[in-house]
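User: Can you model how FE2/S2 (inorganic) cluster sits in this protein?
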Amino acid sequence: MATFKVTTQGGETKDVEAPDGTILMQALNNALLVEATCGGAASCGTCHVYFEDASLAGERTEDEGYMLESLEDFVEIKDGSRLCCQMTVEARHDGCAIEIAPEA
Ligand code: FES
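Assistant: Here's the modeled complex, given as C-alpha cells:
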C-alpha cells in the first residue's frame, strides 16, 4: 500500500491510498481527481500528473512519451510528468507528492 500526497487542480492537498500492484489511475479516478477519459489507453492525457521528485516517477512507456509530446503545446511537461494510467503502484511510492496537471 502506498499513500500519495496529491495536490488537486484547485490547490487542495489530499491523501490517496493505492494498493501495490494497482494502476495509479484507478486510485486517482476513484477519488475523482482525474478523468481518465480513454480508460487507460495512453491516448487522452487527462490522467497527467507531476511527480514532485522526478526520480520516483519511473520510466515513461513509448506510447506515453508520444502522448505527452502531443500535450506540450497546451500544458507544461516536466521531468516528473507521467500519465498515471501507465504507472503501477509500488511500495517505494509511499509518501510520494504528486500534483494533478492542468487540463490541456
Ligand atoms: S487515461 Fe487516457 S491517457 Fe491515461
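A couple of observations from the model: Residues 25, 36-38, 40-47, 67, 83, 85 surround FE2/S2 (inorganic) cluster (CB under 6 Å). Residues 2-100 form a domain with the Ubiquitin-like (UB roll) fold (CATH 3.10.20.30).
User: Helpful, thanks.
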